[in-house]
Amino acid sequence: MSYPEDSSATVESPSGNEEHLQSSLEEPLAEPQPTVPWRERGGKYAFLYYSYACYILLTLTAVYLLNQVDRLMLQILLPQILKDVSITDLEAGFLTGYAFTVFYSFAGLVVGRLSDVFPRTIIIAVGVLTWSVMTILMGLARNFWQFAVLRAGLGLAQAACTPPASSLIAH
Q: How many Å apart are CA 49 and CA 119, to the nearest integer?
């Protein structure tokens, strides 16, 4: 296949007429649009938008940090809990794994859908409040079944943070 030296090509149309096509390289490119800084986008109130965005981002970072610390707290305190409460190693493995993870995974799907329908900030606030209550009640648990139910509740409550937070950051 050979290409002509000039930037035009001759093409035969279905009707038998020859048409001349110009190369797209000769067309002028559109001028790039300048990036508008955030200060100029919102006019004189742009600082309010920027400060609210920073507030939301810092708050969600703190929530996520507490989420991770609270999630790992059982693993950190497990040796002391095993001494205090009669829990076998198999039950301890269930508490640190399945009791939390299964409920966290499935609740994340439901909460993701709810965050499209209801206000995301309310969902996050209810999740943080519920997981705080679950954490306090886990400190009062005295047997395996209490730990298992509260750990599953903790998974449900903590799942209420990640999907709405991702959606909130995107907006």
A: 19
